[in-house]
Amino acid sequence: MSQKNRLDGGLIDRSEAWSFRFDSQYYKGHKGDTLASALLANGVRLMGRSFKYHRPRGPMTAGSEEPNAIVELREGARKEPNTRATTIELYDGLRANSQNRWPSLTFDAMAVNDLLSNFFAAGFYYKTFMWPAAFWEKVYEPIIRRAAGLGSLSLQDDPDGYDKGFLHCDLLIIGGGPAGLAAALTAGESGARVILCDEDFLVGGRLNLETYAVGGMSGAAWAAETVARLQAMPNVRVMPRTTVIGAFDHGVYGAVERVSDHLAVPEDGKPRQILWRITSKRALLCAGATERPIVFENNDRPGIMQASAVRAYANRWATTPAKQVAIFTNNDDGHRTASDLVARGVEVVSVIDTRAEAPTSSDYDVVAGGVIDQTWGRLGLSQIEVKMPKGGIRRIKCGALGVSGGWNPNVHLTCHQGGRPVWNEALAAFVPSATLPPGMTVAGAANGVFSTHGALQSGADGAKAILADLGIKASAPALPEAEDTPVKITPFWHVKTAKRAWVDQQNDVTAKDIKLAHQENYVSVEHLKRYTTLGMATDQGKTSNIAGLAIMAEVAGKAIPQVGTTMFRPPYTPTAMGVFAGRAWGMEVRPTRLTPSHNWAKEQGAVFTEAGLWLRAQWYPKPGETHWRESCDREVMQTRKSVGICDVTSLGKIDVQGADAAGFLNKVYCNGMAKLPVGKVRYGLMLREDGIVMDDGTAARLAEDHFVVTTTTAKAVPVYRHLEFVRQCLYPDMDVQLISTTEAWAQFSVAGPKSRKLLEKIVDDGMDLSNEAFPFMACAEITICGGLRARLFRISFSGELAYEIAVPTRYGDALVRRLMQAGEEFDVVPYGLEALNVMRIEKGHVTGNELNGTTTALNLGMGRMVSKAKDSIGSKLSERPGLNEPDSLKLVGLKPVNPDHKVPAGAHLMTKGDKVTASNDQGYVTSACYSPNLGCHIALGFLKSGDTRIGETIRLVSPLTGVDHEVEVVSPHFFDPEGERLRA
Amino acid sequence: MHDLTPLCALGGAEPHTDKVAGVTLTETPGHTLASVAARLGQEDACTKHLGTLLGSEAPGVGSWVRSEPISAFWTGPDQWMLSAPYDTHEDLAAQLTAHFGATAAITEQTDAWVWFDMQGDGVEQVMQLCANIDIEKMPVGAAARSVIHYMGVYVLRSAPDALTILGGRSSAGSLHHALLTAMRSAL
Question: What fold characterizes domain B17-29+111-186?
Fold first, then answer.
């Protein structure tokens, strides 16, 4: 199809004609086009269907404020719904489809909604779908969602990458129009570090859209020259295609750079978009202004646009929505559009000016004091009806109507921290108030300075004030001469006789809806917004809010500022979710921590599980084993029979040094640590300040002033943080130094009756591992394998004769291979987390399941560990009566009466004969497993007065999973209760 | 001499190297590390000892003093991280304990960290995608504690076109992925 509405000139590159497809039709466009401008050049005005009534819609704007021309861009996994055709940069081969229509854009069966519009007024859902309540989720909502909506998701993973980045500057300039460029020039030449962001791919703002001269050249030429000057400055970073989406605390701004959106596919390794966090000392908002429409009958037909957008399409993109264009205005700016169109050879059939004193023109017809009464055209504007000032209707044929209701400063970012704009009577618009985000000032049209000269000057002045504030000497580049036309406007918001007149075109909110809301007593503007959904679409009401407020003010008999404004929130424009995730998705959603034996375990075919950020071997399947239990049972049995090895590096290790190290540990552990001899390890229980158990672990004393403390894997960081808090804030007078050494040492548990024999093969001569020389709970710094420094601890989680041996992490892989090799003669077995868990449950050792943030030392059966002979954190509050009731929960072991039954964790305990109610609850199961040594399922749990109920048969229930059988209360120490094996 | 073979943090027998455009990312296992924290009341003495060791003043806040064979960067009030060549100073912690005596707590940190060197034209652009550091204003000899993709790191500036990044050893693979992805993106 030819570009029948393409004009001469413009800022597009005609050297190549690019092919693109919209719905099923192919078109041609050029570099520099947007999808909207290219479609308009091809004579396409119809680009979408409205949200609720499915009315035909075309672009209203030429920028990011667009409410109507929203399409599904790209196809397949890259499909992006609800993308504004007015900001989509054209590329060769672009594919876009219209949305929210069925079966096609030109014939949309859902447009029947429009005929039923009387039923779909504001509050329709709330009033209609009240009964039955259960129908809302299953019946009504799906129907409504299908009928009213936006684009559809691809339901596939986004194949593109997104980055997050960090930039710093003295001055962030938001918007690269005349104010922003003048500010950047001033600050850049003064040597300040400047970042200039502009959402457009061509920096220059309205300079690229207007015809008047700036410094003796076109505005676009001046903008291009200035951008080139700025880009040559090493202290200035010009960022086109970058939208500042939010103003956050401490001068931090969020900005999305569209790195690859102008390409069919991002280059290899390049992100689609980057979310920049810009830390600025100061920010100057030069976001320009948005022309607002006037509300009148059927004002939403394709072809009815902002007058400034019609002008922009003609001047920058060399296109017109139609050959004959009319203008409807209440201010002088509408006439500028008319003049520009005439100059570009477009027929201006009439300028309808609401003002009786409208300027006249020899180039076009002016109807002073007229208003649009009606429009016609099913899929696009074909005719307007003008109510003449002296009565009567005049019909005018035209394919486009430019509407100018005045300009609204883009104050959005000034409101992101609670600021409310103030009303300016002369401009008939809201302008930024004095309550701005700290560090922000505003210049140019965003501050209500609408002439080019004024914008340039206010940008330069704004920069100078900021430089002075920052103590940077300002150089003052000469500003070019430019037009300085005053604003002449007589507010006119809506044609009162209109019946179906759209205020918010994206959410299909009409003037009638606003009147209805008022009639139904919605007084607050915030309630009006939510009841009618005015301004709640993805455009946040950039073109609609003010008209809505004006109409509400009118019906309420108030002035506009008395009605107030709603709040603008980040993001400034719709933002892809992917950019908030950045690179954190899939396997990279968070870091992965690998144990030193990871490679080796992988070679063994280990099955891994996540333990926090760690990947730990869960079990090591052998050929022929088809179920994890087979592997787990084998690992348990073999360890208890001979020897097993487990990587326990992930347990936290904290180096505690200092003259007061022992005293310090005496404070943080509830049991005594001060008198622990050098070369010994002690089990310790750490309480929170409220007396609840925080974590357990061991403290090994390597020297008088040197301990190594271990924590559980899950609590490594919280415990370290707690210790630092205690050191720095509670006991700053203690000589204690802390540092984590979790990752510095690879640590392996070597457990089982043959563990000593195995270790004897690798420790260096002179190290006596006999029970006498190195008894249970001994520790030492030793060497192994001919001189490698290592640490050896005789501690046991499994209940076996066991050791933990640590070497510098780089040797962890070599050590596990050596241990396996040396252990061949004992049939050594590696064991994973499952076997570790089984063995500790058999032994009655607690872990995170029991230290669950609600339990005390008393609950754990360790009440006597809380030393009364000293003061330690949490000890006093652990004595609270509520934590020491006679029937307190106590740790018990549980065995099923019927050996075939399981004892699942999470199940609750009930006294036999009691009704299963929460008030009769006697306790709950925390850890459960199958014990291959006992030949049945076993569990640990908490039971009221459990220590006195050993031998009792009670009822185990889990109403959720249907469990209801009897279990016997036994000692939690199922295996080797006397501890003979671990002391062997 | 023991006969165990060490592995690099990324899991290879040899250090890993990547090159994207003009920037090289190298895993550098040839450093030992040890933390030095002044004992209470010994802050001045400890700082003086450190100065003697480095042949200059002890590094202050955000600084890194590089000298032969031992270098040091500041990690907190009266705390530093010291490094030296692995080949000659595998026992750095023991050597430092002897040097500082009762004025400081010394802890071996060598294998707690993975050490990456990034060198070439564009390291600043890469770091801008990684960490919230004002990298353009970070002088040679500066040290910063920061976060890259949720991982705590130290970033040291060794030259206008070179950075050193220290991250936790267990998450070396994730850090390497983050750095390499940023290199591909930025360069």
Answer: Gyrase A; domain 2 (3.30.1360)
Give the model confidence (pLDDT) of A594-608 as tens digits: 999 999 999 999 999
pLDDT in tens, A688-712: 999 999 999 999 999 999 999 999 9
Read off the tokens for A958: 């889990």
Q: Does A663 touch chain B if contact means CB atoms closer than 8 Å?
A: no
Instruction: Quick: pLDDT tens for A809-860.
Output: 999 999 999 999 999 999 999 999 999 999 999 999 999 999 999 999 999 9
Query: Is-cis flag, bond preceding A571, omega within 30?
Result: yes
Does the domain at B31-110 match CATH 1.10.510.10? Answer given as: no
SS3 A98: coil
Distance of alpha carbon A893 from alpha carbon A895, whole angstroms: 7
Cis-peptide, bond into residue A574, ω within 30° of zero: no
From A584, A657, A811, residue closest to B149, measured CB to CB: A584
pLDDT exceeds cutoff 80 at A352 = yes
Interchain pair B170, A279: CB under 8 A: no
Question: Which two tokens mark A716?
Answer: 């490594």
3-class SS string, B87-139:
HHHCCHHHHHHHHHHHHEEEEECHHHEEEEEEEECCHHHHHHCCCCCCHHHCC
Q: What is the pLDDT of residue A844?
A: 97
pLDDT mean over B13-30: 97
What's the alpha-carbon Rg for chain A, to the nearest Å?
38
Our CA angle for A501, A506, A509, nearest 5°, is 40
How far from the centroid of its chain's Cα atoms is residue B99's Cα? 21
Of the residues B170, B175, B176, B180, the best mutation for testing chain A's interface (the one with the most A CB atoms within 10 Å of its CB) is B170
Among the partner-chain residues A193, A268, A658, the one whose CB lies closest to the CB of B105 is A658
Q: What is the CATH topology of the domain spanning A300-402+505-557? A: FAD/NAD(P)-binding domain (3.50.50)
The per-residue DSSP string of A344-379 comes to TT-EEEEEEES-TT----SSS-EEET-EEEEEE-SS
Taking one residue from A and the other from B, the number of pairs with CB-CB distance under 8 angstroms is: 154
Q: Residue B108: its chain A contacts at CB < 8 A? A: 741, 744, 808
> A589 pLDDT exceeds 70?
yes
Spell out the CATH class of A885-984. Answer: mainly beta
How far, in Å, are A419, A674, A729 from residue A732 at the CA level? 43, 18, 6
**Best residue of B1, B3, B5, B7 to probe chain A, by most A CBs closer than 10 Å:** B7
Tens digits of residue pLDDT in A238-283? 999 999 999 999 999 999 999 999 999 999 999 999 999 999 999 9
Nearest to A657 among B105, B111, B174 (CB): B105
Q: Write out chain A residues lying below 8 Å of B151, CB-based.
A: 591
Query: From CA A551, how far away is CA A509, in angstroms rounded?
Result: 12
Q: Could you say which of 3.30.465.10, 3.10.20.580, 3.30.1360.120, 3.30.750.24 is the CATH number of the domain covering A593-650+744-839?
A: 3.30.1360.120
Residue B109 contacts residue B89 (beta carbons within 8 Å): no
Q: Does B124 touch chain A (CB under 8 A)?
A: no
Question: Which residues from chain A sit within 8 angstroms of residue B174, using beta carbons?
Answer: 588, 591-593
pTM, rounded to two decimals: 0.95
- Asked if A768 has any chain B CB less than 8 Å from its own CB, the reply is no
Contact A801, A755 (CB under 8 A): yes
Residue-level pLDDT at B20: 98
Q: How far is A870 from chain B (nearest CA, A)?
A: 24
